[in-house]
Amino acid sequence: MIIIGVDPGIATVGYGIIECIGNSYKAVEHGTIETSADVMFPLRLQAVYKELSEIIKFFKPEDMAIEELFFNKNVKTAIRVGHARGVEILAAVDHNIGVYEYTPLQIKQAVVGYGRAEKHQVQEMVKILLNLKDIPKPDDAADALAVAICHGSSLKFKDSFIMK
Questions:
Q1: Using alpha carbons only, how large is the chain's radius of gyration in Å?
Q2: What would the pLDDT profile of 115-144 be if each residue is shown by its tens digit?
Q3: Domain with 14 in it: what CATH number?
Q4: Any catalytic annotation for residue 159?
Q5: pLDDT tens digits, residue range 91-121?
Q6: Residues 111, 113, 116, 122: what is their CA dihedral angle, to the nearest 10 degrees?
Q7: What element of type H or E holds 97?
Q8: Most buried of 28, 37, 65, 114 (most Cβ within 10 A)?
Q9: What's the CA dihedral at 51, 52, 53, 55 to 10 degrees?
Q10: Which residues contact 92 (CB under 8 A, 6 or more apart)?
Q11: Is residue 161 over pLDDT 70?
Q12: Residue 29: which of 21, 20, 18 has the closest Cα?
């Protein structure tokens, strides 16, 4: 099964594509979609949608796993990232792939085995689980791979279901 993981954002959207074969994972591709703050917000949303749609068309994942938003400070930023997350989900739905959401706690638990793990611990486990030479860069891409791994480990528990 091919899974795309998404670390939602507007300035930087992380994506990571893995192949899940039983209990093992293989990295297929990872990277970021970036938009400039100098561009009008609706055009940034459009750019994220278009680029993510192209990635989905090329790699043909069966499922998208996306991180739930967690903000405790800047409401304006949370709303903008929420809008971006909406178009990221729309890109998946428009291409008929299942969308599943996971909290940061669920992702850390699935990847590290401890829900309060530090970022560097998650990144190191992503490297190990995907048998990579180095920790994936940038951080947003590593986070997206972690979301994909979380979904891969949760396939038997599809209770995080949004839409299929």
A1: 15
A2: 899 999 999 999 999 999 999 999 999 999
A3: 3.30.420.10
A4: no
A5: 999 999 999 999 999 999 999 999 899 999 9
A6: -30
A7: none
A8: 65
A9: 90
A10: 4, 56, 64, 98, 99
A11: no
A12: 18
Q: How many domains does the chain have?
A: 1
Please pick, among 7, 63, 88, 101, the residue that the annotation labels catalytic: 7
Helix (H) or strand (E) holding 34: strand 24-34
- CA dist 70 and 68 (Å) reads 7
The two tokens of residue 62 are 């069966």
- Exposure of 45 by Cβ count < 10 A (0-12 exposed, 13-18 middle, 19+ buried)? buried
Give the strand pairing for 24-34 and 161-163. Answer: unpaired
Which pLDDT score, from 0 to 100, does residue 157 have?
55
7 is catalytic: yes
Catalytic member of 51, 63, 88, 140: 140
Asked whether 84 and 45 are in contact (CB, 8 A), the reply is: yes
Q: Check 51, 63, 67, 143 and give the catalytic one.
A: 67
139 an active-site residue? no
Residue 98: C-alpha distances to residues 61, 80, 92, 130 (Å): 9, 23, 7, 23
Among 27, 5, 31, 30, CA closest to 88 = 5
68 with 85: CB under 8 angstroms?
Answer: no
